[in-house]
Amino acid sequence: MGEEADIDAEVLIAGAGPTGLMLACELRLAGVDVIVAERLAERTGESRAGGLHARTLEVLDQRGILDRFLAVGELQAVGHFSGLWLDFESFESRRRYPLNLPQSAVERILEEWAAELGVRVLWSSEVTSVSQDSARVTAELGAGGDAAPRKLSARYLVGCDGGRSVVRKVAGVGFPGTPATMTALLGDVELPGLTEDYIFMRRVPDGHFSVIALEPGWYRVITSEYDHVSDRDAVVTFEQLRESLIRLAGTDWGIRNPRWISQFADAARQADRYRAGRVLLAGDAAHIHYPAGGQGLNTGVQDAVNLGWKLASVVRGRAPESLLDTYHAERHPVAARLLQNTQAQAALARPGVQTDALREVFAELITFDDVNRHLGGMISGLDIRYPAEGRHPLAGRRVPDADLKTPDGATRVYELLHTARPILLDLRGNAGLAALAARWGDRMDVVEARSEDEHWAVPSVGEIPTPAAVLIRPDGHVAWAAAASGAPDFSALRAALTAWLGPVR
Ligand SMILES: Cc1cc2nc3c(=O)[nH]c(=O)nc-3n(C[C@H](O)[C@H](O)[C@H](O)COP(=O)(O)OP(=O)(O)OC[C@H]3O[C@@H](n4cnc5c(N)ncnc54)[C@H](O)[C@@H]3O)c2cc1C
């Protein structure tokens, strides 16, 4: 297969959206030769998503690029669950507040980072067909027009090509779920007659509408109606948006000058497997849902960060291919829960007196701190815990960003993760840990440090005594931790090192 290809790479990514770009960067950090094939000729500047949540901000902090996003976004004090306000004030994270930032800005910053890391992006390159054998995967790239298609051969292909993923279809992966039951129209417009600052999910008998300020003079109008399901392939017109706004709001506020009009709905579907041989799926290609609470892009970026280091490890021949199956095992349940919470939010958004009553009950419940923290942990991604061996409360969770003192000076846990390498953090100076880790050679870093705090605050858990040692995966999740007192369990550490870094040669 390889000899016939016009282009070769170790990994091919279909789609230069947020998921594909993040994955490409993760792979490049591990030195993998990666190409991104993107159907579009250039960026459109359109923005579906409007923000990033705490766990995504933490992930960007783990790579040392968070400041680029903070420099252009705006931190918000609150988030929401189907329009009911959530308060993130007491969350156990340095990055607890959501960041308002258009998707186009997220893509631009990721693209700049990808260029710095040497990612090759092929624009005007639509993946149209895929075949694989036991050694390689070959994709045909259509250039559009009369240009001849090219063949690209790689060891792995990751479909990050959005909700209508061609890669998912040609790989024969099922996409079960539920169809749309409503129609939402969206337009970025001028509204000269609007006198209110903004309107968020105002409920009326036939649906609800929002008007959100984007930048001086510009607003995003969203109308949601429940009496019909539109054809998702049809082009939405300005007139349709205006009429929908009049139906729901009773006025169009002089709506004019649309720069983008689109539609979305509440279909909820998930790929039944995230891996089919040498083909993997991530982001919207693996899951679509009602965009309530702003979670889709966040989940895609976090899919990429879970998959990147595993795929790099397999490509480098350090870990067996079975490591890739942990990607499905860990990320499929996360998106299944995402589909569930967005379906619950969709149910809470429907018009009708019974829903009004349900919302009243929810609005009361959400004022209880435990409920606020439970829903906020879900929306922010801070409560994610992957299946993990061991009884330590950190096992499988994301490591807190604790302040540390090392022989080289003060640092933070997330600064240690900038290189995207596994880290054995020894917080009690146990020589046995470094001796055991040495058997894995240069596959990881051992860092001896002291924590500045006697306790670490962990979302969904509370305060725990600072552990004696932690094995941290490149994605920031804890593979093994030793309790504050008592001898570390060396055999469990050996098992964790073997499982996540591959066997000792
Ligand atoms: C109204 C609305 C608001 C939203 N708000 C939020 C929010 O606030 N927060 C949030 O987290 N999420 C939000 N989302 C969801 C978010 O926009 C998506 O989850 C996100 O774009 C998914 O990123 P992705 O990279 O997986 O896919 P996409 O962004 O869809 O990117 C896929 C890329 O692949 C390319 N492509 C497609 N087919 C091919 C092919 N065959 N070959 C090569 N390239 C191909 C496309 O051109 C595109 O560039 C919102 C969605 C909507 C509709």
TrEMBL record:
Superkingdom assignment: Bacteria
The keyword Flavoprotein is annotated on this UniProt entry: yes
Gene Ontology terms, MF aspect: monooxygenase activity
Keyword annotations of the record: FAD, Flavoprotein, Monooxygenase, Oxidoreductase
Cofactor(s) named in the record: FAD
InterPro entries in UniProt: FAD-bd, FAD/NAD-bd_sf, RIFMO-like
Record-linked Pfam families: FAD_binding_3, Rng_hyd_C
SUPFAM superfamilies linked: FAD/NAD(P)-binding domain (SSF51905)
Annotated PANTHER family: BINDING MONOOXYGENASE, PUTATIVE (JCVI)-RELATED (PTHR43004:SF19), TRK SYSTEM POTASSIUM UPTAKE PROTEIN (PTHR43004)
The protein, known as: FAD-dependent monooxygenase
Organism: Catenulispora subtropica
